[in-house]
Amino acid sequence: MAGTPRIPKAEITGVYGALVKRFSRKMFGEVPEAVGVMWHNLPVLKTSMGLSRKAAKWKECDENLKSYAHMAVASLVGCSFCLDLGYFQAHNEGLDETKAREVPRWRESHVFTPLERDVMEYAEAMSRTPPTVTDELSARLLEQLGAPAMVELTAFAAMTNQMARANVAFGIEAQGFASSCGLQPLAQPSDIGSQA
Predict the structure, then answer these.
(1) Looking at residues 152-174, what average pLDDT do you find?
(2) Which whole-number Å values give the CA distances from 135 to 80, 121, 122, 185, 193, in the listed order?
(3) What is the pTM of this model?
(4) Mean pLDDT in the chain?
(5) What string of DSSP letters covers 56-70?
(6) In 3D, which of 129, 124, 182 has the Cα closest to residue 153?
(7) How far is it, in rounded angstroms, from Cα 87 to Cα 189?
(8) 3-state secondary structure of 112
(9) How many whole angstroms separate alpha carbon 136 and alpha carbon 188?
(10) In whole angstroms, what is the distance from residue 176 CA to residue 189 CA?
């Protein structure tokens, strides 16, 4: 469950605050801690929320693939909040929960197709410093997905990096969204230290 964020949560007030709280409770059952932290700077919060809403309308890339990319980035970066929320969203959006649950140990798991493995490898390669994306991996994905989906996947993984890294820096941790739905915990890699 969540610890204490490094930046204390602000009180969410006003008409806009009431709307944000109502929307958050409708979507997640509660207001994510990140909203309270980011409430200190409304332009940043609004831009982040706006980008998320716009990205939800992107439809060139398969939703399961984007979910796996999101969770692979979150796992590599160490964002427990993103994994918790990603698993919760996979459940609520009717995505493949069995596979979503296995993303943190995708290299060891036998449930993924070669394309899904390439997507997670690509998302992780984008997330490393410096990035380790290869021409071969990009060419395989481009051939399988096509240019529009490849652009979307890349932008989605980049956006996930921004949000995951901000959450880790803020000290935002899992809030139990997945467990509130009765979902089992995510699988963990057998050798967590060798992933990063």
Answers:
(1) 96
(2) 31, 13, 11, 35, 26
(3) 0.89
(4) 91
(5) TT--SS-HHHHHHHH
(6) 124
(7) 16
(8) coil
(9) 28
(10) 20
Q: Which residue has the tokens 């979910």?
A: 67
- CA-wise closest residue to 153 among 84, 87, 60: 60
Q: Are 151 and 170 in contact (CB under 8 A)?
A: no
Note the Cα 29 to chain centre separation in Å. 18
Asked if 85 contacts 173 with a C-beta cutoff of 8 angstroms, the reply is: no
Query: What pLDDT shows up at residue 195?
Result: 46
Tokens representing 155 are 């932008």
CA-CA distance, 13 to 157, in Å (whole number)? 32
Tokens linked to 179: 């467990």
> Distance between CA 47 and CA 60 in Å, rounded?
23
**Per-residue burial over 2-36, b = 16 or more CB atoms within 10 Å of its CB, e = otherwise:** eeebeeebbebeeeebeebbeebeeebeebbbbbb
Residue type, 194: S
CA Rg, the chain, in Å?
17
- Give the tokens for residue 185: 């915990």
**Residue keyed to tokens 């989906």:** 149
Q: In this model, does residue 185 exceed pLDDT 90? A: no
Sign for the pseudo-dihedral over CA of 75, 79, 83, 89: negative
Residues 137, 75, 54, 183, CA torsion sign: positive
Average pLDDT over residues 93-106: 90
